Amino acid sequence: MGESPQLAESDRERIQRGLIAFFAEKFSVHVPSETTDLFESGTLDSQKFVELMLHIEDHFSVSLGVDDFEIDNFSCVGKIASVILRHKDASMSVGVSGSAASQT
Prior knowledge:
Blueprint: H1 4-27, H2 46-59, H3 77-96
Helix pairs in contact: 1-3
């Protein structure tokens, strides 16, 4: 009903907190906010990026595709959360009704 936007925001915040915790635990790096540029700050390099991708796929149960691998999608925690939510929303809409995608 009217709770969906609130739940989506709650999910976004939970994902962002989880990603910030991942950076702290795995890389011993403090990410000050969801808008901090991870590449400019030196938080992400090519090796850490691969580890991040594996973490996202394992922890959030999403399968990232080639279309996702644009540097802008991973420039900050907020954008990474958007990618994760987009995949979760897509899998939920297909899972709820296999014919939902074909009704457009």
